[in-house]
Amino acid sequence: MLGEGFEIMQEELDEEYDPTLEEIEEYAKYLGMDMQQDRDLFYIAKEGLKAPLPDQWKPCRSPGGNIYYFNFDTKQLQKDHPCDDYYKRYYHTQKSQVRRKKEEKVIKKQIKEQQKQQQQVVQQAVAASNNPNNSIQQMMLMNMSNVEAAVAGIGSTSIINERV
């Protein structure tokens, strides 16, 4: 319950409010963002700074002058803006999606490289088989060494690629 001496305030939203870069960076840090790597996600911090309070919440000033948020439905009083948790989760979800897209791009590149290496092995085997100077045993040894080299070059990525 709201203690004695607390002043219930009205939220004043300025439709023209455009947070400064400094405000965005400060809130981005609070949300857990990396200032260099997550700059493309700063729109989340900007959106969070402009977010209105949910209907059941009101800002309140304590007798000491600090701002708190009071939920009139649950009688909960807290220091953090009620939307902060939402924007933290939103940031982590978006960061995971960005990371997943980057990983998919790397995996697709690895698949293309693997396919290219496999095509080269096949082309070498065909070229060797068309050479009348090569014996069947030499062609088989050449093909096996090419396959082993291609597999060794791919390494552990073949396991990742199979999942994709």
Lateral arrangement of strands in the main beta sheet: 1-2-3-4
Overall average pLDDT: 83
Helix content: 55-70%
Strand percentage lies at 5-15%
Any guess at the CATH architecture of the largest domain?
Single Sheet
Taken in chain order, the helices and strands follow as EHHEEEHHH
Radius of gyration: 30 Å
- Note the total helix count: 5
Polypeptide structure, described:
The protein folds into 2 domains: 76 residues, Ubiquitin Ligase Nedd4, Chain: W (Single Sheet); 61 residues. The protein has 5 helices and 4 strands. It has a 4-stranded antiparallel β-sheet with strand order 1-2-3-4, with no helix packed on it. β3 and β4 form a beta hairpin. α1 crosses α2.
Tags for this model:
164 residues; alpha+beta; 2 domains; 57% helix
Give me a quick take on this structure.
This protein is an alpha+beta fold. The protein has helices at residues 21-31, 42-50, 84-130, 136-154, 157-163; strands spanning 7-8, 57-61, 67-71, 76-78. A hairpin with a 4-residue loop joins strand 3 (67-71) and strand 4 (76-78).
